[in-house]
Design a protein that fits this description.
- It is built from 11 helices and 4 strands.
- The chain is mainly alpha-helical and 312 residues long.
- It folds into 3 domains: 44 residues; 190 residues, Orthogonal Bundle (Lysozyme), CATH 1.10.530.10; 52 residues.
- The strands form 2 sheets. Strands 1-2 form a two-stranded antiparallel sheet. It has a two-stranded antiparallel ribbon with strand order 3-4.
- Helix 2 packs across helix 9 and helix 7 crosses helix 9.
- The model has no long low-confidence stretch (mean pLDDT 90).
C-alpha cells in the first residue's frame, strides 16, 4: 500500500511539473508570437509616404509647394508603392528595357525621363488598350503610320521596341514644339494634341500643372513621376532586390531578309531555336509567315546560342 501511495504521489508531482512546463512553453510561444507579430508590423506596416522635397520631370521643376500638386503626387506614390507586385515587376523589367530605350531617346533629343512614360503606358509589355493603342508605347494605328511604322496583317512595328521608340520620339518632339514644355508634351501623348489645345483655349492657361484635365490625363504626369521616384529609389519605398533579381535582355544578332518566308517555324530551326523564341524576340512579326511581295528588307533578331534550353 505504501508503494502505491508513493507511486501516486510521484505521478502527481510529474503531472504538476508537466503542467507547469507546458504552461511555461505556451507562455514563451505566446510571447514569441507576439514579438514576431510586432516585428512584422514594425518591419512592414502601411505608412504614409514622405513627399520628396524637390522633384522634376524632364528638367522642369514640379511645383510641390502647391497643395493640390502635393496631394496628386502623394496619391500616385501610394497607389504605385502599395501595389507591390506590380511595382516590383516594373523595377525588375527596367534593367531589361531601359538600356535599349535610353540611347534612342538621347539620339532624338528626348529627355531621359520619358523612359518612365513607356512604363506608365504599358508596364514595359506589348499590350493592347481598349482603344486599340498597341505596344510598349501604346500607339494608335493612324499615329503609327503617320510616324513611319508599318502596320498590316503580317507586320506591326508598334510591337518593335526600337522602331516604336523612334516613332514615340518623333511624336514627342512635335508636341514639344507645339506646346513649349515637356510636361505638356507628355499630356498630349496621353490625351491627343487636339484635345489639349481645346482645354488650353477653354481654361486660358498654358501650364500642365494649372490645367484641369480628365481623370486619366490629370493623373498622367504624376503617375510618371511616381514611377520614376520608385524605380530610381526602390529601397526608399521598401523594395529589396539583389542584382540577380532584375530581368536582363538576351543578347541577339540580326539576320536580314528581303524575301518571303513561308514558315517561321522552319526558319527558326535554321538558327537552332523554335517558333516561340523567334516570336519572343520579334513580336512585330504577326503571322507564322511573311508575304513580303515587295522584297522589303527586314532585320530579324536571333538570340545568341546558349541562352535557351530547348525541349527534345
Amino acid at each position: 500500500m505504501r508503494y502505491v501511495k508513493s507511486g501516486l504521489l510521484l505521478l502527481g508531482v510529474l503531472f504538476v511539473a508537466s503542467t507547469l512546463i507546458n504552461a511555461v512553453q505556451l507562455l514563451d510561444e505566446k510571447e514569441t508570437q507576439e514579438t514576431v507579430e510586432q516585428e512584422v508590423v514594425e518591419e512592414y506596416g502601411v505608412h504614409a509616404l514622405e513627399i520628396p522635397e524637390e522633384l522634376s520631370f524632364a528638367g522642369e521643376e514640379v511645383p510641390l509647394d502647391n497643395p493640390d500638386i502635393r496631394e496628386r503626387l502623394d496619391r500616385e506614390l501610394l497607389v504605385n508603392t502599395y501595389w507591390q507586385s506590380n511595382a516590383l515587376l516594373l523595377i525588375k523589367r527596367s534593367k531589361k528595357f531601359f538600356p535599349i530605350i535610353e540611347p534612342i531617346l538621347k539620339e532624338n533629343g528626348i529627355p531621359d525621363d520619358f523612359k518612365y512614360l513607356a512604363v506608365a503606358e504599358s508596364g514595359l509589355q506589348n499590350v493592347i488598350s481598349p482603344a486599340r493603342a498597341t505596344g510598349y508605347w501604346q500607339i494608335l494605328k493612324a499615329t503609327a503610320k503617320q510616324y513611319g511604322l508599318e502596320v498590316n496583317n503580317n507586320v506591326d512595328e508598334r510591337y518593335h521596341l526600337k522602331k516604336s521608340t523612334e516613332a514615340a520620339c518623333k511624336y514627342l518632339n512635335d508636341a514639344k514644339k507645339k506646346f513649349g514644355s515637356w510636361s505638356l508634351a507628355a499630356a498630349a501623348y496621353n490625351t491627343g494634341r487636339g484635345n489639349l489645345i481645346k482645354q488650353q483655349d477653354r481654361q486660358k492657361v498654358s501650364n500642365y500643372y494649372d490645367l484641369l484635365l480628365g481623370e486619366e490625363t490629370g493623373r498622367y504626369v504624376f503617375r510618371i513621376l511616381a514611377i520614376k521616384e520608385i524605380i530610381s529609389n526602390p529601397e526608399k519605398y521598401g523594395f529589396q532586390l539583389d542584382e540577380e533579381d532584375y530581368y536582363t535582355a538576351i543578347p541577339t544578332f540580326e539576320v536580314e531578309i528581303d524575301q518571303p518566308v513561308a514558315d517561321f517555324a522552319d526558319f527558326a530551326k535554321e538558327y537552332e531555336i523554335n517558333y516561340k523564341i523567334l516570336k519572343i524576340h520579334n513580336p512585330w512579326l504577326r503571322e507564322a509567315f511573311l508575304n513580303n511581295a515587295s522584297h522589303k528588307k527586314y532585320q530579324i533578331e536571333i538570340p545568341e546560342k546558349g541562352y535557351y534550353q530547348l525541349g527534345r
